[in-house]
Amino acid sequence: MKGFTLIELLITVVIVALLASVALPLAQTTVQRNKEQELRRSLREIREAIDAYKLAGDEGLIERKADASGYPPTLAVLAAGVPNKRKPDDAKVYFLRRVPSDPVSGEPWGVRSYASPADAPRAGDDVYDVYSRAEASGLNGIPYRQW
Length: 147
Known about the structure:
Blueprint: H1 6-58, H2 76-80, E1 82-83, E2 92-93, E3 110-112, E4 129-131
Antiparallel strand pairs: 1-2, 3-4
C-alpha cells in the first residue's frame, strides 16, 4: 500500500498545529524582549547625552544663559550641535549622532523639564529627562512610561 491514510494526515496536521501554538507566544515574547532592550539602550543614550550637555554648560564649553537650568532646550539640539565657545572657528559640540526613536510606541519621546516633578512629568523650557509614551507594561510588569 502506497500513500497516507486520512487519519495519518489528520494526526500530522494536529501535531503541527500544536507545535505552532507553542512557538507563537515564544516568538512574540522574543520580539517584545528585543524592543525592550532597544528601549533601555535608547533611554540610556539620550539621558547620557542630556547629562553631557549639562556638564558642557557647567564647564563653560558651550554657552549657557544665567537664568537657564543648563539642560538642553530640545532633544534636537543634542544632535544638531551647539557652538563650542573654546574654538573660534564655528566648531560645534555634538552630543548625539541622531535622536533615537521610541521602539515601543513609535511616537516622539515624552519630555520632562527640570521644573516638573518626577511623578507628574511635563514639558517646559528645557529637557531634563525623557520617557516612553507607550501605554503598555514591560515583561517585568513596570509600565514603559516609568522606565
